[in-house]
Design a protein that fits this description.
- The complex is a heterodimer of chains A (about 180) and B (about 160).
- Chain A has about 180 residues and is an alpha/beta fold.
- Chain A has 5 helices and 4 strands.
- A 4-stranded parallel β-sheet of chain A has the order 1-2-3-4.
- In chain A, helix 2 packs across helix 5.
- By secondary structure, chain B is α/β, with parallel strands linked by helices.
- Helices cover about 20% and strands about 30% of the residues of chain B.
- Chain B has 3 helices and 7 strands.
- Chain B has a 5-stranded mixed β-sheet. Chain B has a two-stranded parallel ribbon with strand order 6-7.
- The longest helix of chain B is centred in the last third of the chain and has 12 residues.
- Chain B is elongated.
- Classes of the chains: A alpha/beta (about 180), B alpha/beta (about 160).
- At the A-B interface, helix 3 of A face loops of B.
Chain lengths: ~180, ~160
């Protein structure tokens, strides 16, 4: 005859882990090492936001890291073409957890006004995106608002899984093959 | 002067020069495509047109009054004479090829690759004719008028 014993009740110690979670979230949100994946005109507004007038260093995000291995936030800035898609995915996969993605500018959110044969209609079809900053290009105030939303997300949900991708995979249409 | 150049070219290459006109300070020639190489070579070597400024193509798919579907347009500039010349050459759809000018002007190399990529016009004698803007697995030539402008062929991700 054995005795059944309940698991020890440690819920009164939850306040320690909650405080620790908050502290980790606070530390992560104020030390963002962004990877500015800049391809097009939005890069100008990114630079304007990062430099002295609209300073992004006061948010703790003053150090861009141009290596995905050393970065935790991927700022995708500018139009992504289908030729660039696999490169973007590879850069995203080279980053370590925890990582977040910001879609900066309408080209990365939905393809922008480039509804053509070459442009990815939103990078969330390729990689999961956490914050969308629309604008063509977005004003620096808009960017800083998006950055603060990202910080809220990092603070509250830094243990959450990445958001889902949009759409499903399908085969490209068949066309006549031209070879030189 | 460009008018002198027009009369000179018309007399030297009578079979090949189909049409010519002076458009302001520039001269425009419509050349038959088999004669593009000798005319270009003459202009470069003997008349000092040392710069190829542009090489592009036009798709006249639904244009009335054009026999051939494509037209290759070459823009030459002479620094010593300060004159500009446009050579237009019709290319039919059933045999979309024309001689390459890459041996005369190295700048033509990438322009011809772009025309191949976007229109599907082959350049005979080009050293390395392959796509330059689109990726190799892309099928079709996107700047042709019958290619739907939003037909995407994603390498990864969904068809959207």
């Amino acid at each position: 005859m054995g005795t059944v014993s309940a698991a020890p009740d440690v819920s009164r110690f939850d306040f320690m882990t909650t405080r620790l979670d908050d502290a980790i979230g606070w530390a992560r949100k104020f030390s963002i090492f962004q990877y500015p994946f800049v391809t097009a005109c939005c890069g100008m507004e990114y630079m304007a936001t990062a430099c002295s007038h609209y300073d992004v260093d006061r948010f703790g995000a003053g150090f861009p890291r141009f290596s995905p291995r050393q970065a935790d936030v991927l700022f995708v800035v500018g139009t992504i073409s289908h030729k660039m898609g696999p490169v973007l995915k590879q850069v995203y996969e080279q980053m370590c957890e925890p990582k977040w993605v910001v879609a900066f500018g309408v080209c990365t959110c939905t393809g922008g006004f480039y509804d053509n044969y070459a442009t990815v209609q939103g990078i969330d079809t390729i990689i999961p995106v956490d914050v969308y900053i629309p604008g063509c290009p977005p004003r620096p105030e808009n960017v800083l608002d998006g950055l603060m939303k990202l910080q809220d997300k990092i603070q509250k949900h830094h243990n959450a899984p990445p958001p889902p991708l949009r759409g499903g995979a399908a085969a490209p249409p068949s066309l006549p093959i031209s070879k030189p | 002067m460009t008018t002198a150049l027009i009369s000179e070219l018309s007399s030297r290459f009578p079979n090949v020069v189909a049409d010519s006109k002076a458009g302001g300070p520039d001269a425009w020639f419509t050349i038959r495509r088999e004669g593009i190489q000798p005319v270009a070579s003459f202009l470069k070597n003997e008349r000092g047109f040392d710069m190829l400024m542009d090489l592009t193509a036009v798709d006249y798919l639904e244009w009335e009054g054009k026999e051939d579907r494509f037209e290759v347009v070459v823009n030459l500039y002479s620094r010593s004479r300060n004159e500009r010349v446009f050579l237009k050459s019709s290319v039919p759809e059933n045999d979309p090829s024309i001689d390459s000018l890459a041996a005369l002007w190295p700048a033509a190399d990438w322009y011809e690759r772009e025309v191949w990529d976007m229109f599907g016009i082959r350049f005979k004698g080009h050293p390395d004719l392959r796509r330059i803007l689109m990726y190799e697995s892309f099928r079709g030539h996107p700047l042709r008028k019958d290619y739907p402008y939003n037909l995407r062929q994603p390498l990864i991700g969904p068809q959207n």
